Amino acid sequence: MNKFKKYIEETSKSIALPLLAFFLAILSGGLLIAFSDPKIYKLWKSPLEFLGTGFASAGHAYLALIQGSIFDGNLTSKNFLLGFYPLSETFVVAAPLILTGLSVTLAFRAGLFNIGAQGQFIFGAIGASYVGFHYNLPPVIHALAAILGAIVLAGLWGGLVGFLKARTGAHEVIVTIMLNYISVYFLLWLLSTQTFLRKGRQDPIAPPVNENARLPKLFGMDYRINLGIFIALGVAYLIHILLSRTTWGFQFRSVGANTLAAKTAGMSVPFVMTSVMVICGALAGLGGAVQVMGSEYALTAGVAGSFGFDAITVALLGRAKPLGTVLAALLFGALRAGGLTMQANTTTPIDIVLVIQALVVLFIAAPAMVRAIFKLKNVKSGTDMAAKGWNG
Amino acid sequence: MSVELRGITKSFGALVANDGIDLRVETGEIHAILGENGAGKSTLMNILYGLLSPDSGQILVDEKPIIISEPSDALAAGIGMVHQHFMLIPVFTVAENIVLGHEKVNGFGVLDLEKARSEIARISKEFNFDVDPDAVVETLPVGIQQRVEVIRALIYNAKVLILDEPTAVLTPQETDELLQVMKNLKKQGTSIIFITHKLREVQEAADRITIIRRGKIVGTALPTASQEDLASQMVGRPVDLTMNKSPAKIGKTLLEISNLTVTDSTGRELIHDISLDVHAGEIVAVAGVQGNGQTEFARAILNLEEHVSGSILVDGKDILGETVRGSLHSGIAFIPESRELDGLIGSFSIAENLILDTFDLAPNAKGLLMSPNTVTNEAVKRITEFDIRSQGANELVSSLSGGNKQKVVLARELSRPVKIVVASQPTRGLDVGSIEFVHEKIVQERDAGRAVLLFSTELDEVFALADRIAVMYRGTIIDIVPATISRSDLGLLMAGVKPKVSS
């Protein structure tokens, strides 16, 4: 019983900061929405109406956000279950985000700051796409082959970072930022080559992956939701096991928490750096595969969206824990999916979602501020891992 | 100038660091504050110097109550402090360091150091300090750097000088010189508060001694009190300061180091041509002043250094160039110099720290999967065996006291099958009780037939444990002497001077 109480206490301490940061971000986002509505500026003179309108526009926007991410009553006329279409969209967006988020999370735990999920995602997408459209393989096997292609390519791309760091001490932050550029332009070049051009088209879009290489849809053709979300959840569980139960995870965590002590105890820091980055690359690459094989089907220049960059926010919000990362990715998936509906149904631009995301990071990175606002003590700081990433 | 603290209380959460402390320091008195690590000495001094504010209590200077809320208030009241870790900028000159924060400029807005220079020269002459105002601080020996700190306090008219563990970084000779400086200052009417846990220095320099234990004053004593008496007041139970050990039963050579040379990446030699044998059943102490290459020597044995030549035979097998892991598992237990930095992972539990170098071996793991239950059960056994005071195997190491942290390191390293124990400063920063424990364990290891190589900068420790003493100076071993050498001869050797009759 005592143990349970302690566990609850510990957990509430460590999730207090992300929750409060999110709450603050929603609050400030609400203010921004209210003030972005031109109507409000004509109501200075009547404070009551002023406030009312402000609340109304923020309320409408957030309601639309929920409609776009969880349940929309307007869609239920044909079939009640269709009302959950927005929720399925949330999962579609969240699946790749969970995987890239895990990539950043795992790196954090080993003391590395992986800014390169974006590039690794791109290489994963390239691998999945190429295997997906270039070969003709039986069902299941083709999908597995495409995933393998993505993992190998992105794993090598990520591993390169770890190898460079282990061998030369090159800082992974700088290296991954640079490799992101290379990835983006490599993709653009690739899309202009004969191999990747669709027959009869000149615009940069690769042929669609074969039916056999697509991830099966979960609830029929009305929904885009596919096996990707289960792949993501399963991998998250595997990463949890890797970190908490395996000898590799033990080494990763040791190097991340105290490199000197790990080295003195005989662990091989170069091995850890390289292998962690291989796995991180593979994770982000798997995200790319899920995106290509699950919802996009074709490789385009914008295939990666901002999955690799949002991943950093997701990992921070998830406190570099697999479960936290999953929850944070679901949240961000909801924001992304809902943002579209919000823009369509109200005058609020989707950019407000980006602002909320940015505010979440800001508040998480400034725990002192959150503590001061809520007069809290003992809330665990969220900057430790980010700081460690830099110093590593 | 006299200083009086009345009823000073300061808590950090549930921990009461200072509990109603009354202390009076008279004009021209050297007042030693003796206490174990964590007894609350530093907290008290940080309160007096304005770095912490007390929860309750009063500070009086010359019978008048004053409020000190930051160090500048303390300086203005005539209270100066020399910290254990110097607050000097290494690339600046002495004069530049001293004017730091009080810079004067001439008519053109250019920094004017002339006045500072002449002041430094005056004080240096007055107290026989021998400090050159234009020397760059990083080129000065530690003892002189410390004097720069003292001068800084004096230049701003400190009448009460707080010295926080000032001898921790000094050679025996430098320590003697510092004690002399303190006596000179005292003659000029400066009061000194001398914080330490070293009994010998207290007896030598102090006029009065106040002993603090667990945040409370537990007694006062005169320097004539016996060491045993002081120590037992400090620890709160009778302490036996003499290590009872039987004569060494020397066995075969287990560790044979020949021509060991370590360079840094630029090719500069860090240690030079060291040869040393350690036999089963003996303790060889490597004595020397901190920073003479002991760190690199110890690390080189575990292949933690990169540019090494020579040979390291462990029971006849050369391990030079092995991995760190290979070296550890060739039969060496390694107690690294810093528990916090390279010995332990603070954010890991005791159980996890106990398997840092055996995490992937049976029974801790089967293949890739670890066995958390076995790990925890083993940890519970170790905790009892090594008397690690904790709330259980899952407690984080960072929340343990220094002594218990070191016990975790010992428990980890001595529970593996080893032939050799390499212990680097194993009692640095520990309280008397923990030192006793560590010493007993080290002697037990010796008596169990292991070869023990002990690196220590503490003469007391060297004399308590060593069967032979190797003296390190400037990266090499200048002499290997029997443990019967006199304290003063060993002090000279540590300063690089070979006594005429070397044994």
Main features:
heterodimer; A: about 400 residues; about 0% strand; globular; disordered C terminus; B: about 500 residues; Rossmann fold; 3 domains; six-stranded mixed beta sheet
Mean pLDDT of chain A: 89
Number of helices of chain B: 17
CATH H-level name of the largest domain in chain B... which superfamily? P-loop containing nucleotide triphosphate hydrolases
What is the distance, rounded to the nearest whole angstrom, between the alpha carbons of the first and last residues of chain B? 50 Å
Extract low-pLDDT stretches of chain B.
none
Q: In one word, what is the shape of chain A?
A: globular
SS strand fraction of chain B:
25-35%
Low-pLDDT regions of chain A: 379-392
Structural class of chain A: mainly alpha
Distance between the termini of chain A: 39 Å
Q: What does the oligomeric state look like here?
A: heterodimer
Strand tally of chain A: 0
Order of helices and strands of chain A: HHHHHHHHHHHHHHH
What percentage of the residues of chain A does DSSP assign to strands (E)?
under 5%
Shape annotation of chain B: globular
Counted up, domains of chain A total 1
According to CATH, the fold-level topology of chain A is ABC transporter involved in vitamin B12 uptake, BtuC
Largest sheet of chain B: 6 strands, mixed
- Our Rg estimate of chain A from Cα atoms comes to 22 Å
The secondary structure category of chain B is alpha/beta
Main location (chain B): membrane
Keywords (chain B): ATP-binding, Cell membrane, Membrane, Nucleotide-binding, Repeat, Translocase, Transport
Subcellular location (chain B): Cell membrane
GO molecular function, one term (chain B): ATP hydrolysis activity
